[in-house]
Specification:
- This protein is of the alpha+beta class.
- It is built from 6 helices and 12 strands.
- The chain has a 7-stranded antiparallel β-sheet with strand order 3-4-5-12-11-8-7. It has a 5-stranded mixed β-sheet with strand order 1-2-6-9-10, with no helix packed on it.
């Protein structure tokens, strides 16, 4: 017989003397009123409340949100960190299409938005669910967010959360890839955000300028 069996046999054979009911009730009442137990209960409540506040604060902290974005999608764009990145990027591509905004909307299947302060785009191109617009030194792409991402952005440096538009700023050159693994091109500084089921990619050299234009896109 092993130790476990011996202990079980001992428990079954042990004779427990009767206990006075009044004494049992008194002991239980005394234990319930011990201040230490109340203090422990209160400390546990304070700990849980403090933990919730801490987690809520971290969720709203831009560096933490930027870290989460390293492996989460931003609308129809998926950001993927890589070990190396391009050192330079070519100039922002010019949009050569000459569609009207109405024609672009009919082709894409949704009404495109643009930074109103820039006025009518110099170039407009479109395909189903996708519109590209261009001005001098500015390129805006927008497309309907689907179940699968349209683009992968392979980047090296940390991306930065932009609370003004709930988007992310890619400050350095990065590889822009379509989901079918075709490398589209090397892209420069870009602001990416999503609104009402549409993902926006705004390429412009300066972050402050990008945020201003994005805020005025309608």
């Amino acid at each position: 017989m092993n130790l476990d069996d011996e202990l079980r046999a001992l428990g079954r054979s042990a004779v427990v003397p009767p206990v006075d009911d009044a004494l049992t009730a008194a002991v239980l009442n005394r234990v319930a009123d011990i201040p230490v137990r109340r203090r422990m209960r209160d400390r546990w409540r304070f700990f849980v409340a403090g933990l919730c506040v801490l987690l809520a604060g971290l969720a709203l902290t831009p560096p933490v949100r930027a870290t989460v974005a390293e492996w989460l999608r931003i609308g129809g764009v998926e950001a993927r960190p890589v070990g190396t990145a391009p050192s330079t990027a070519p100039p922002i591509p010019v949009v050569t299409g000459r569609l009207s905004l109405d024609d672009a909307a009919r082709t894409a299947g949704f009404t495109p938005a643009w930074p109103r302060e820039l006025g009518t785009p110099a170039g407009v191109d479109a395909s189903p669910r996708f519109v590209a617009m261009g001005w001098d030194g500015v390129r805006l792409e927008q497309f309907q967010s689907g179940v699968s991402p349209l683009y992968w952005k392979k980047y090296y440096n940390q991306i930065e959360y932009v609370p003004e538009v709930s988007g992310y700023w890619f400050s350095t050159p990065h590889t822009l890839v379509l989901v079918d693994q075709r490398v589209v091109r090397i892209a420069g500084p870009t602001l990416v955000w999503e609104r009402a089921g549409v993902t926006y990619r705004l390429e412009v050299a300066d972050k402050a300028r990008a945020v201003q234009l994005a805020a005025g896109t309608s």
